[in-house]
Amino acid sequence: MNEATNDNLISGATGDWEVVLGLEVHAQVLSEAKLFSGAATEYGAEPNTQVSLVDAAMPGMLPVINWKCVEQAVRTGLGLKAQINNYSVFDRKNYFYPDLPQGYQISQFLQPVVGEGEIIIDLDDGSTKIVGIERLHLEQDAGKSVHDQHPDLSFVDLNRSGVALMEIVSRPDMRSSAEAQAYVKKLRAILRYLGTCDGNMEQGSMRADVNVSVRKQGDPLGTRCEIKNVNSIRFIGQAIEHEARRQIAIIEDGGSIAQETRLFDPKNGETRSMRSKEEAHDYRYFPDPDLLPLTFSQDFVDEIAASLPELPDTKKARFISDYGLSAYDAGILVAEAESAAYFEEAATGRDAKTVANMVIGSLFAGLNKAGLNIINSPVTPENLGVLVDLLSDDTISSRIAKDVFEMMFEDGPDQGKSPSVIVEEKSLKQVTDTGAIEAAVDEVLSANPEKVAQAKEKPKMAGWFVGQVMQSTGGKANPQSVNKLVLQKLGIEE
Amino acid sequence: MRASKLTDLSLAEARDGLLQKDFTSEELTQAHISAMEAGRKLNAVILETPEKAIDMAKACDAKLSYGGGGALEGLPIGVKDLFCTKGVRTTACSKILGDFTPPYESTVTQNLWDAGAVHLGKLNNDEFAMGSSNETSCFGPVNNPWRNKAKETNLVPGGSSGGSSASVAAHIGVAATATDTGGSIRQPAAFTGTVGLKPTYGRCSRWGIVAFASSLDQAGPITRTVRDSAIMLGAMAGHDAKDTTSIDTPVPDYEAALGVNLNGKKVGIPKEYRIDGMSDEIEKLWQQGIYWLKDAGAEIVDVSLPHTKYALPAYYIIAPAEASSNLARYDGVRYGTRHEGDNLLEMYEKTRGAGFGAEVRRRIMIGTYVLSAGYYDAYYLKALKVRRLISDDFKQAFEKCDVLLTPATPSSAFTIGENLHDPLAMYMNDVFTVTVNLAGLPGISVPAGLNMQGLPLGLQLIGQPFGEEALLGIAEKIEQAAEFDARPEVWWN
After folding, report:
1. Which one is catalytic: B25, B80, B132, B164?
2. Of B94, B133, B137, B184, which residue is the catalytic one?
3. Model confidence at B323: pLDDT above 60
4. In the annotation, is B95 catalytic?
5. Which end of chain A is more exposed for a tag (fewer CB within 10 A), N or C?
6. Of the candidates B295, B288, B290, which has an alpha carbon nearest to the alpha carbon of residue B268?
7. Between 3.90.1300.10, 3.60.10.10, 1.10.760.10, 3.20.20.70, what CATH number should domain B10-240+259-493 receive?
8. Beta-carbon separation of A60 and B215 below 8 A
9. Is B325 annotated as catalytic?
């Protein structure tokens, strides 16, 4: 990337600073069973009810690879346009902790299942940027220590122990918190499209370790700090902003950055030290002798590749070319596979731009306000489509369309009446009969002779008459016709 | 038939007697339970399960009465305490496991019970199978049934499967399960005049066996005859989907591989196994073995395994490295013994400090060291390279011969306490056996005679991967030529 174009610099006392960011995202693999045992992975089960003998590291128990998880990792690798390694190795990462029953985590160290790839991130100004992916590897999750159940004791829940994670490591290609957030959003969208991770950060099925360093532009990379386990996109932004400024302040004070692992505290929006480099574990990685190297044929990869869905970037390009959408609108619609599918279902065979406007405008606003997801939208894509049809063929005005949309939203999909039925029942059809409109215009003009006189002097006043006519017709009159007649009768040139 | 006589029978003889209804499994089992109780001075059995044994024997008799039953129907055996046995305490002879009672059965023992074997009890072994003398067990040492003619001192039965070897040599069980990571089946067999077979890595499932060094551990039998070994292996072996490293290849009829003609068979003699300071009696034994096989029709060829001298150091890096990680799960959190501390770290330190014995702690420290940053390449990685070279040595040797003949051990059984405080002297016991584990090959130790002190000595045959049939066939020829029928004088009753 061209460093000179970075307009995300943070200004400090000694000049502008560039933030360099790399992310390690842990994404829980969507799979019914764990990585090396048959235990279930469902979220929210009672503590220690989804634990096999292997997960509890009973003596003599052995891990056996769950091929569904391998398939999901390969699928993800293909979605990241990455190198797929037909030969990879599981290693043991050794450390002691009560929620790590084996005393080691089975992970992949030197030879991961997926190598280099890339993600195109979409920035708010409509531009895009490529972020490199260094690798993706499979590993086991740990259990959970519970410290708030007893005054002196800690408890351990092993439900998560052994659940498959994909650790996806980016290159240090991001230069602002916004870019990092865009990266996580895009990665999450890709994983959801692929069906390899549900991306639910609040349930912990996706979390990020953020590597932050700062430097003056053109300088070599600065010393980095790693902020562990940040679990929302908002927190990722806050953590980076705080951490970058903390580092700049230290350097500008004449100090230097100590390489360390830090934690983000959402309560005060700050990061604090967790352990220094000297305190870092020596994980004593070595190949797990209980497992053979992970190998698979090219056919295995090809079969998965053949079943990949259309991914956000391709879909966005298609929405732009096939539906004539703007890059911005297309980007919003493809951010979630479900929104894209909703849009396509509603847009097929009709004015797609209007559908896009209604989805991004009224629907998203309504869903947001009601705290609903597009999957359980009260307005079905079919009904939204019909509504657009009614608008397009001038059966209703855009103002009435808004009202009808709200009625549909209130009704919900179950009693979801077709908008044409609503329009019929409530007599909301647009009045296009010129005679009727003319009568309404005449009535308003004759009732307000002073205003008529003023309007003849000041043509802008015409808008007031249009509003009055629309009101008197309950919004059903065609606004263009009203406008035309008002101007005509006032003798104002168009 | 008198009860004491029933314990004289080999596994094959007992099986035939049961099939011919000469006696019942209950009688056979009761005779062995009596021998077990009479042999407590040996300390070979650390948990007796007589009631379970009688119940199992009765069930076997029911099956046998209508002509049913498996290959081991009604035969009482002992189980090394490294095998997890459902509902029966399993400790690996370590304090850290306390009274751990597994809710599951190891695949190998399950295979044995499915074949009809009767469970006499759990057998002593070195703690976590780390040792060559059975002296590191938290239950105390096992006494070898064999004693030096001149002295009354007790000898070690070898290790780590010392309870297995001693119980079989003392006719407490018709056979025993054992495990071999660097020689733990073959060395104790050699020290007790029994037959010890370590199968090819992957032949028997490791599922449910307390792990020592995963890439080296393999289960196998200790028996009194080669035929018994063949019968036992047939029941123990097989692919297991629960152990990724077990290999999916059919289990042959090993007993049918006996009685073969050695004409045209080539036996390799690796010159590197003639180590410095090797005693005359071992040298003589080896020459005797060569003569026997030549006499039986085999062709003797000289072969070279040039990297042999690096095997022991490589082994004592790889095995502790894996062990240091395998034993991390014994942390006092979920099962076994816990020693409370004021904080987590203290709990770990107290639990593991008190729970593991000195030899286990030594190996955990060595293993942790060789895997740590800055030492990994110089030790662990180098050891893996040596391992590959050793494996290649064998591949090349097997281009010239079918099996290799070597001594099983550099000496006969030594006195209890003699090597306990000299780990290097103790580790030397594995000098002829570790190469086989590093290369994943099958090896068998066959009793070949007595030395001047009247103690048994063994010869080792090393086979090609999944060459157990050839190994057993040739081992039987040594057994026949040696006419080894000596028994230890019973001093322990």
Report:
1. B80
2. B184
3. yes
4. no
5. C
6. B290
7. 3.90.1300.10
8. no
9. no
